[in-house]
Write a structure and sequence with these properties.
The complex is a heterodimer of chains A (302) and B (97).
Chain A (H helix, E strand, L loop, with lengths): L2 E7 L2 E7 L5 H19 L7 H7 L5 E2 L2 H16 L9 H6 L6 H6 L18 E3 L4 E3 L9 H20 L3 E5 L2 E5 L6 E6 L7 E5 L2 E7 L4 E4 L2 E4 L2 E2 L4 E2 L4 E8 L2 H14 L4 H7 L3 E5 L4 E4 L6 E2 L2
Antiparallel strand pairs in A: 1-2, 2-6, 3-5, 4-5, 6-7, 7-10, 8-9, 9-18, 10-15, 11-12, 13-14, 15-16, 16-17
Helix pairs in contact in A: 1-6, 3-6, 6-7
Chain B lengths: L4 H43 L20 H4 L9 E3 L8 E4 L2
The chains are: A alpha+beta (302), B mainly alpha (97).
Chain lengths: 302, 97
């Protein structure tokens, strides 16, 4: 028997499902506490977050918490793994594209013209001293951990909850899913471009499943729609071949790294994905669906 | 100075005990070290000596990086995905965000 609870945080849907209803309340508490800690450490929209302090003091090494060290560390590993397609130094480019506040605030305001694209400093320029917990970015650079922080949180929460309560758990944070523990039957999940859309059904026994898209977190501009996935090569919102990518990998961070890279750099990321052998489902701009590396035959969700 | 027979005997007994204790300590120390070396050696040979630490920034010698957050439990590389029957009820969703 499973039990589930859904709420909204970080401008997205959060859902926690466990196979032991008795631990649902405590497990939700664990997830909320972790998300609160991550928010205080790494939110780009909170002036009091550690990340905001680091971005404000660009050019200097700033003492930070172990949590932020871990989050930045993971973002750098993702950058390395993706060949720079998922780069945490896209902060100024995201702001230039118009995503300079919470997405709901950006959507509500009068359409703003996008300013000139900002060059991306490059993840290699980030200074992270893990032992001393010091973090620094170059002047005129800012970190945006939006690509990896949600997935990292889903991974961490699923592992901690599963081990602490001895149950199987499915953590979902805005499209980033992570299953941990040993469920009696694999979880049945819907994969869709947008919440509420008709998607496809697959089963998930373990690991991470993430969907990245440029069709959801977007906003009106005088010339059309802007979105938040930046191509680090141009500093502009990505306009590659694929509008949506779903990827399975052993962890949500790894899956998200590939799904984000596919949206950010399009075909350039397909080679790395095939090399990794992770199942993926890609939707091109014209709606054509491509399934790779053993993506299962899926049923249409009701 | 006069030394009594009893105190000489005590001193001899004390020396015997001290030397026995020293020998025992040395033997135990050597034994424990040998066992430790054996355990460490067997662990290394079993793990293949592969480290999990990967530097994320080659240009910064002071920085170090481990993939603990992303790959700490990559024990299963086989796909966790499968086909779902058309009548199955969804328990979660991976929607674009």
């Amino acid at each position: 028997m499973t039990a589930s609870r859904t709420w909204t945080a970080w401008s997205c849907t959060v859902r926690l499902t466990v196979d032991d209803p008795a631990v649902l309340g405590a497990a939700c508490g664990e997830l909320k506490v972790l998300m609160d800690r991550v928010d205080k450490a790494a939110s780009r929209f909170r002036p009091d977050s550690e990340l905001s302090v680091v971005n404000t003091r660009a050019g200097a090494l700033v003492p930070v918490s172990r949590l932020l060290v871990d989050l930045v560390d993971v973002s750098l590993v993702a950058a390395q793994m993706s060949g720079g397609a998922v780069d945490p130094t896209v902060g100024p480019a995201v702001i230039a594209a118009g995503y300079d506040a919470d997405i709901e605030a950006v959507r509500r305001r009068f359409p703003q013209p996008a300013v000139d694209p900002q060059p991306v400093a490059g993840w290699q320029e980030v200074r992270l001293n893990r032992k001393l917990a010091l973090l620094g970015v170059p002047k005129d650079c800012a970190l945006d951990l939006g690509a990896t922080a949600k997935a990292w949180t889903a991974d961490r929460a699923a592992n901690v909850i599963s081990k602490r309560y001895g149950c199987a758990v499915l953590v979902e944070i805005g499209g980033d899913l992570r299953a941990a523990g040993a469920p009696a039957k694999p979880w049945v999940v819907t994969v869709a471009e947008r919440a509420g859309d008709q998607g496809v059904l697959v089963t998930l026994a373990h690991g991470g499943l993430t969907t990245s898209t440029r069709t959801v977190r977007r906003w009106q501009t005088p010339t059309g729609y802007g979105h938040h996935v930046i191509d680090p090569r141009t500093g502009r919102p990505a306009d590659g071949l694929y509008r949506t990518a779903s990827v399975w990998a052993p962890t949500a961070v790894r899956a998200n790294t590939f799904s984000t890279a596919l949206i950010a750099t399009g075909e350039a990321a397909v080679g790395r994905l095939k090399l990794a052998g992770h199942p993926a489902r890609l939707i091109a701009d014209d709606g054509q669906v491509t399934e790779l590396s053993g993506w299962p035959t899926a049923s249409r969700a009701a | 100075m006069v030394t009594t027979h009893g105190s000489q005997s005590n001193r001899r007994r004390w020396l015997h005990r001290a030397s026995a204790a020293a020998i025992a300590t040395a033997v135990l120390g050597v034994g424990a070290t040998g066992i430790s070396v054996a355990v460490v050696s067997s662990k290394h040979s079993g793990s293949g000596g592969a480290g999990t630490t990967a530097s994320s920034s080659d240009s910064d010698s002071s920085s170090s990086s481990s993939s603990s957050g992303s790959g700490s439990d990559d024990s299963s590389s086989s796909s966790g995905l499968g086909s779902a029957g058309s009548g199955a009820t969804s328990q979660g969703g991976s929607n674009g965000s």
